[in-house]
Design a protein that fits this description.
199 residues, mainly alpha, globular
Length: 199
């Protein structure tokens, strides 16, 4: 759904517009909030913060116009501001000192299917570990590209690189990730054969 289509939907049916906003950007907002509040907030605090963000965006839907930027960018800006405000409020309550300047990105939650969610968490956690171990700037490039859906130009600006360099590093990093996963699968297959031979 395009930004213009969302605006039209909100005018036609506010309830559907609100639901569409959550469906399309729920994972992104959750990731932003979790990134800012990890180690500081409870699960309920995080969920409350996410709800506050969507409520504010929806209540101020008239303030958003495609001419001033994308809905994703508008939503991300509000999410970061509210998450930082929540962080400051929560650190006073819990007396914690985690840094809000940490730019690590946390993977968004999976769907509400318990079995699929468990499997997805295990897989995502493993993929996440591999990506983090690729080293910089490869780790940041893949994270920004696939988890934040940033373009090569946006990544290049954030990392002080050229778009061409980002593209080249991305291709190499993805190839390296593929090789690691392929080797692990092959190793696991050999392990299964050994187990069967001993049985």
């Amino acid at each position: 759904m395009t930004d213009s289509e969302w605006i039209s939907l909100v005018k036609k049916s506010p309830q559907q517009g609100y639901r569409a906003l959550i469906d399309q950007y729920g994972n992104l907002v959750y990731a932003i909030v979790l990134n800012k509040l990890k180690g500081t907030a409870s699960r309920e605090d995080i969920e409350d913060c996410v709800s506050d963000i969507f409520v504010e965006v929806f209540q101020n839907a008239d303030c958003f116009t495609p001419e001033n930027g994308t809905l994703k960018g508008y939503l991300s800006t509000i999410a970061k501001r509210i998450a930082i405000d929540a962080y400051r409020r929560l650190t006073k309550r819990y007396n914690t000192t985690a840094s809000i300047e940490d730019d690590e990105i946390i993977l968004p939650p999976s769907d509400d299917n318990p079995e699929a969610e468990t499997e997805s968490k295990l897989f995502n956690s493993h993929i996440w570990d591999i990506i983090r171990n690729l080293g910089e700037p490869d780790s940041s490039i893949l994270i920004r590209q696939y988890f934040y859906e940033q373009t090569a130009r946006e990544i290049a600006k954030a990392l002080s690189m050229t778009a061409a360099a980002v593209q080249k590093r991305s291709v190499r990093a993805r190839q390296k990730l593929k090789e690691i996963l392929t080797n692990e699968l092959n190793f696991k297959g050999k392990g299964d054969c050994c187990e069967k031979a001993r049985a």
